[in-house]
Amino acid sequence: MNKPYVRLNKADAAVLLVDHQTGLLSLVRDIDPDRFKNNVLALADLAKYFALPTILTTSFEQGPNGPLVPELKEIFPKAPFIARPGQINAWDNEDFVQAIKATGKKQLIIAGVVTEVCVAFPTLSALAEGFDVFVVTDASGTFNELTRDSAWRRMEAAGAQLMTWFGVACELHRDWRNDIEGLGQLFSNHIPDYRNLINSYMTLTANK
Amino acid sequence: MNKPYVRLNKADAAVLLVDHQTGLLSLVRDIDPDRFKNNVLALADLAKYFALPTILTTSFEQGPNGPLVPELKEIFPKAPFIARPGQINAWDNEDFVQAIKATGKKQLIIAGVVTEVCVAFPTLSALAEGFDVFVVTDASGTFNELTRDSAWRRMEAAGAQLMTWFGVACELHRDWRNDIEGLGQLFSNHIPDYRNLINSYMTLTANK
Amino acid sequence: MNKPYVRLNKADAAVLLVDHQTGLLSLVRDIDPDRFKNNVLALADLAKYFALPTILTTSFEQGPNGPLVPELKEIFPKAPFIARPGQINAWDNEDFVQAIKATGKKQLIIAGVVTEVCVAFPTLSALAEGFDVFVVTDASGTFNELTRDSAWRRMEAAGAQLMTWFGVACELHRDWRNDIEGLGQLFSNHIPDYRNLINSYMTLTANK
Amino acid sequence: MNKPYVRLNKADAAVLLVDHQTGLLSLVRDIDPDRFKNNVLALADLAKYFALPTILTTSFEQGPNGPLVPELKEIFPKAPFIARPGQINAWDNEDFVQAIKATGKKQLIIAGVVTEVCVAFPTLSALAEGFDVFVVTDASGTFNELTRDSAWRRMEAAGAQLMTWFGVACELHRDWRNDIEGLGQLFSNHIPDYRNLINSYMTLTANK
Amino acid sequence: MNKPYVRLNKADAAVLLVDHQTGLLSLVRDIDPDRFKNNVLALADLAKYFALPTILTTSFEQGPNGPLVPELKEIFPKAPFIARPGQINAWDNEDFVQAIKATGKKQLIIAGVVTEVCVAFPTLSALAEGFDVFVVTDASGTFNELTRDSAWRRMEAAGAQLMTWFGVACELHRDWRNDIEGLGQLFSNHIPDYRNLINSYMTLTANK
Amino acid sequence: MNKPYVRLNKADAAVLLVDHQTGLLSLVRDIDPDRFKNNVLALADLAKYFALPTILTTSFEQGPNGPLVPELKEIFPKAPFIARPGQINAWDNEDFVQAIKATGKKQLIIAGVVTEVCVAFPTLSALAEGFDVFVVTDASGTFNELTRDSAWRRMEAAGAQLMTWFGVACELHRDWRNDIEGLGQLFSNHIPDYRNLINSYMTLTANK
Amino acid sequence: MNKPYVRLNKADAAVLLVDHQTGLLSLVRDIDPDRFKNNVLALADLAKYFALPTILTTSFEQGPNGPLVPELKEIFPKAPFIARPGQINAWDNEDFVQAIKATGKKQLIIAGVVTEVCVAFPTLSALAEGFDVFVVTDASGTFNELTRDSAWRRMEAAGAQLMTWFGVACELHRDWRNDIEGLGQLFSNHIPDYRNLINSYMTLTANK
Amino acid sequence: MNKPYVRLNKADAAVLLVDHQTGLLSLVRDIDPDRFKNNVLALADLAKYFALPTILTTSFEQGPNGPLVPELKEIFPKAPFIARPGQINAWDNEDFVQAIKATGKKQLIIAGVVTEVCVAFPTLSALAEGFDVFVVTDASGTFNELTRDSAWRRMEAAGAQLMTWFGVACELHRDWRNDIEGLGQLFSNHIPDYRNLINSYMTLTANK
């Protein structure tokens, strides 16, 4: 009766970043802006670190929603980038779905703005088509806690797995021995407490 | 094992507004009054915008519960309006159920006051009769977060989908190209942050 | 796949009040003491109002846990009162289970202190024996929100329905026409906002 | 040793609205946007209701800060409107100070975005020049509670009186008999709970 | 430079209860209704217990503000009761001030609804006339924490002492030996945790 | 359709303590450090009290993660202690799984740092292999409430039971008559409110 | 106009612990019990560490308030211990004041339960007699944040300095070179994060 | 009676950064780590931008407190850096005070970890010597909100002005015309919402 453990696998996973646009970000109020910016960039950095196929999409870039945040464009200069002409659910855009299918991956890691629409709709659609969907909750934002909770419950009930960028990174990496430095750097860049641990450690061992 | 994605469809949906009465509203304390008023009116406006059949009902208008908030009457002057003589669960009122069935819709979008009674009871009854029920969580209010959480869990376990008015509007609209101005106006009227984006945009492009 | 709507029914329901003892109450910190006291007494008053068979039980009354709060003894002078000699899960006490079975009811409305033990254990046991269990979340208390949330999830996953005393009262009453004054009095006594509505109403209509 | 009671007086007061611009509003996160929008408009409406001289000012309207929110322009079509070319502290702008002095008022009611800069700086400057300053705390917004608290303490220590728009309206009005309908309308438009009270009352008395 | 310790004294103190009306209470959202009701009644009970002259006042009883909560009328059947015809600041009503002066007391204990108006205005006026004012913060309520904090700061800066009903009772009583039973009863009636302590104690000592 | 009640049983249970390391603990911010330290030690003490086989594991002790907190080593001097060379999911470490299987227990009680990785991953793996898993939520910590909630939902959906150390102790003990003093001492050491109850009781009964 | 910096001085300071009794502690709800217990014991330990004269007092030990928490008696076996026969303000008890004056100290460090009575009253009295008073805010507890805030403001306005046990320890110690080990041990025992830092450090330097 | 407006002046101000060390940062729990890291670096960047003399100091770098965070060393490679051998109050270290006096500035902008010790002590000492002190509240951190509030009140009562890094930057800059690009870059780097405004603006105006 329980959900089986579908475990993230580097070889099976793609990342979808939906509507992280400069205008829309002003709607996000369920998470502190400093923390949210950091989480989104951490997710982007891990996608790059694990060389996961990544797909970017936006809604109405020319209008008030604003352009994709420039950092994401810089991190993924060659990623498929679908500027949707109007579809609210990105899954309704054929180019977007085709880009996903072209990756050949069955595990979709998704984050976006706002959670109950830009994340939830394609999540529900992807689940309905048999994909495994992993929602990166802390890189997705919305109006307030009430709307977030509603969205989480709807996606969870439909079979999505709720994760965080840190959990995603750890589940993909599997074993520190695969690369200590690279993952350590990723964490140092995006987790101030971890950076402090490393800096304390470095200083003490350097002094030996 | 997971809930399938039952997607809201303009052609299949009706809206139920249950007991948004001037007296009962003083019981609502799980959400700020300014935000709640806005959410309820936003839901009403979207019902009108999408021309969804809408049904109003109240409990004991003549007593301390007070009348339906006048704005709702103004927005839906011709909607079926069932002033229940005593049934707490609106679904126990035959006129109410008949009004719903008369719409021929199978997707019910519901909101009301208070969540664990006026929303939860008809939701559970409607689910038991095979309707798809979409609870508009942010246009429903109750005594406090604890009672809200209990109510949400009970409805969700029974199969209801938890949504927000913004999610409902987006899922119904499907594609901005269906009508940019109308939906934009709806959002501008009920989402201050969105209104600001639009106003900034308008000014800048007007200055070109 | 969803839980069916098992609806509370006056004729089928019994109430279990577990370990509301003067000492144990000092452990309850997930809810304000004024509100909690009111909720517990409201549940007791509704049990009496609907003449539901009610069973009281305590754990170690002679020790630091302290006696049952005197108000509950006064409200239910003749109710079965099982002072358990040591069983933590009240369901492990034969007298308690026998008292329940003697009522002949299949719907159990339960509340107690602390939620994850005194409420959750008998709830899980009762569900395992095929009872329908309705947890009155706001008349149950525990150490903090974290332990409460854990307990709610465990009970919900096992099939319990989470309700509040107000929801229970409304679902049992079904129709105001069964008795306006009695239920109105119950609400006036335990919901200050409702009392205010009634008092405003009374004054205005008396002035006519 | 205590601050004397400087009481707001219709004849002595002017209102300063500082930098309520569509871009800057996205920085405000210490208050819910629905509530904040309502508070700002309520302050504007009361300024108009009491016919207080009102001065508008903005910072860099042509840049990312965005234009003044259009509602304010509509409410005060003829008010002095100082688009500052660069001064951060509006008091450093001679036109602004002159506009204030031209009113001949010694009581300044101020609100703006963000609290610790656009409100605090002119407040401190005005106090230093001997004005009485009344900060409308709920029509002023900033990044978060921590920055707000710092700003409030700095202004209070310097002698500002912290008020809310409702307090300002009441202190200016003095006596309901001056005009029941007008003030009632103002409150009904901006306090949902008050509107509900009035609607309940109207219905009951209309039914007499 | 610091405020001197002006200590409450049974012989010098009077109590002012301002606008605790059934309609206005729906505006109070900075404190849980169960707790607020309890605090207001606790303050009333202590005023009666210490036989302090108490003055009641209301604003527009016949309109939407509603009547004084009936419990207060019952507790103080013979207290001066000033139904103000329109003055918002009760101190602007001559009867009210005269009733206060008729008590001959210089220490005023005040509580009311809403804090920044009905409490703050007469507090500031009374301080300006040389009274010592003690604001009972937990028996005064308002729209939200933001407006409360503003009001507290304004009154404190003007010289008011902020207290709670429990602090007031303790400072007036001075010594338990003056009357153990009476004060114990007052606390047992209004502090659930204290009632539990007493009940545990009674049971254990009765069992000796 | 509901989870059956799998009840903790002293004879069937083992405890897994994952990565409670001095460095990693600085990452835990969803729970107060005083409370968290107490909860972890309470879980350790109960494991010892019930003589449950307990397995300790750490990740990179020599690096910035730091050593296992010394208290745990002292409480379990002979427990299997697996210092993992790199596997992030402890279940990927054969020694760890073998140590678990060597206990012959099917009920696994697990806690660790951080919840969404060090707890969630082995929980999901163990469930997939048919173990019953009981997550001790209050002895597990992570970055913030958002990441905790995501992790809880993922584990719960996969079939884990969410408990607290107090619930675990009570479910294992079953009946106070098995040993009043031992369990009482455990609670007195880790629940200040309980300690107070006992101390009050002891004093009163000693005085008899 | 500002308070001068009266700096704590080992040679000038005495500690007053007021009414930390097992029954009264159940009233404290503005701080988590684990944290509060730790803070009170930390204050006691620092008083002992700096050999400050310490005075204990209780109110009605034989009644429901319960005895002084035993740990305090153990830490200060020879301290003056004034069991007050009835005075609520400890300063009204001559023995208490005499014990203080006998120390010859002018700096009083005070903590107790509950803040607005047992701490605030003697604080105000001591200030009135010219003592310097340092309130240890985190070792003092009360019913809720609202009552705490009121109490803090009243004491601060009267001239008390608000500190924490950690601040007190640091201000008394002045220089780590006076004794690294002793103060380090105090912090390690009462600040889990500090203990972790030390344990990480010890392990790394031991490994050199 | 009020504090005069001492306005920050580029020519008169120096910055003190006290004990932002990698170990001590794990004690900071009154502010989210992402936000805190950003605030500290923002303060450092503004000190550099305005070319304010800046002084760094640490306590026990070789021990568990850890080294100064490397970013600060990089930003201020030539700043006076006083590694205190033991003084807890940095003002007790002669080199530190001399370094300050050597700057010839009378306005001290201070931030550090933890607020009630490393910030409050030198703040109080500096005020006592006649300096004007501006505490950057959001670049200073401590154990929790309770200890922060105590510390703020103590410093404020002694005459410190509480500010934020954003307020400091704005008060120093005075007029955007002094340098739009530089300050804009500073804000864009440290205020995500501002960065979004700029990016939206740039895109729209570039498209013209």
Give your account of this protein's structure:
The structure is a homooctamer of 208-residue chains. The N and C termini of chain A lie far apart (55 Å). In chain A, helix 1 links the parallel strand 1 (13-18) and strand 2. Chain A is of the alpha/beta class and 208 residues long. Chain A folds into 2 domains: 13-174, Isochorismatase-like (Rossmann fold); 176-208, no CATH class. In chain A, helix 7 packs across helix 8 (192-206). The model of chain A has no long low-confidence stretch (mean pLDDT 96). Chain A contains 8 helices and 6 strands; from the N terminus they run E-H-E-H-E-H-E-H-E-H-E-H-H-H. The first copy, chain A, is globular. Chain A binds chain B through residues 1-3, 23, 26-27, 29, 59-60, 63-66, 85-89, 92, 114, 116-117, 120-121, 124-125, 127-128, 143, 146-147, 149-151, 153-154, 157-159, and chain B through 1-5, 7, 31, 137-138, 152, 156, 161-164, 166-167, 170-171, 173-178, 191, 193-194, 196-198, 200-201.
What order do the helices and strands come in, and which of them pair?
The structure is a homooctamer of 208-residue chains.
Chain A: E1 13-18, H1 33-49, E2 54-59, H2 70-75, E3 81-84, H3 94-103, E4 107-112, H4 115-128, E5 132-136, H5 145-157, E6 161-163, H6 165-173, H7 180-190, H8 192-206
Parallel strand pairs in A: 1-2, 1-4, 2-3, 4-5, 5-6
Helix pairs in contact in A: 1-7, 4-5, 7-8
